[in-house]
Amino acid sequence: MYHIAICDDEKGTCARLEDMLREYEKKKGICLDISVWYSGEYLCDFLRQGERPDLLFLDIELVSTDGIQVGRYIREELQDIDIMLVYISSKSSYAMNLFRVQPLDFLIKPIASEMMEELMERWLHICERKNQIFEYSIKGCHFRVPYHNILYFYSQNKKITLVLRDEEIPFYGKLKEIAAVVPHNFIMIHQSYLINLDYVAECSYEMIKMMNGSLLNISQPYRKRVREEIMRNKWEKIK
Q1: Each residue of 167-181: pLDDT tens digit?
Q2: What kind of architecture, by CATH, is found in domain 133-232?
Q3: What is the enclosing helix (H) or strand (E) of 179?
Q4: Centroid of chain to Cα 134
Q5: Could you tell me which of 203, 239, 236, 211 has the C-alpha nearest to residue 94?
Q6: Which fold has domain 2-130?
Q7: What confidence category does residue 112 fall into, taking pLDDT thresholds of 50, 70 and 90?
Q8: Angle 23-27-28 from CA coordinates, rounded to 5°
Q9: CA-based nearest residue to 55, from 23, 76, 80, 73
Q10: Which residue in 229, 232, 154, 163 sits closest to 194, CA to CA?
Q11: Is residue 233 over pLDDT 70?
């Protein structure tokens, strides 16, 4: 079962979204638990209690605590990068303000059923990808870690260091061999750095700041590719 939350102060929009999600649920044969919120404050209270939806449809123009504030609360206060955010609005001008909260998508009202289905297909694909496992060995012992827990890999002196949210693990290996098998949300930014795009907090033409505060250099041969990936993920343009 997947938990999906909708937060919009327009009850008609919430009802329309829920209807489309129920149609998709029936078509795909999956099970969705759908919660509806009409206020950003009440949603934050719900999240503060430890509840976490898998996917959150979030209106930007909420009264008082708006959708961007809610998104920043989720990413910066709760330190949660697993909730997939989809912003909805009647205005397209907000799209470039959403870089730091890394939404899955930005939908313009009224939302067409075709757009919703395409979005849900991508979201399910991402959910499946999150279940993938990276495997490595240290002194004959075999270890496994979910890819979605990995911030980045870096190589130094013939060793690879696996950087997780709360620890770093060194082991022997070749970064190019790892880059050949990781999911598509991982990208080389330097011959020594392979990063998970889901954990990028800030980005410039030459540097990337990860959510753990690490500043990583983007070497010249990789800058065009990194720029294209950032754009493809609908993040703010690199300045």
Answers
A1: 999 999 999 999 988
A2: Beta Barrel (2.40)
A3: helix 175-179
A4: 19
A5: 236
A6: Rossmann fold (3.40.50)
A7: very high
A8: 120
A9: 80
A10: 154
A11: no
Task: Return the closest-CA partner of residue 82 out of 102, 107, 106.
Answer: 102
Beta strands in the chain (DSSP E): 2-7, 32-37, 55-59, 84-89, 105-108, 133-138, 141-146, 150-156, 159-164, 168-172, 186-190, 193-196, 200-203, 207-210, 215-217
Q: How far is CA 50 from CA 45, 53, 78, in A?
A: 9, 10, 9
Return the bridge partners of 215, or none.
Answer: 209
The tokens describing 16, both together, are: 């329309």
Query: Among 60, 103, 106, which Cα is nearest to 83's?
Result: 103
Residue closest to 147 by CA, chosen among 125, 131, 167:
131
Q: What is the pTM of this model?
A: 0.59
CATH 2.40.50.1020 residue ranges in the chain?
133-232
| pLDDT tens digit sequence for 12-62 | 999 999 999 999 999 888 889 999 999 999 999 999 998 899 999 999 988
pLDDT value for 122? 87
Given the DSSP bridges, would you call strands 159-164 and 150-156 parallel, antiparallel or unpaired?
A: antiparallel
Confirm if 47 and 65 have CB atoms less than 8 A apart: no
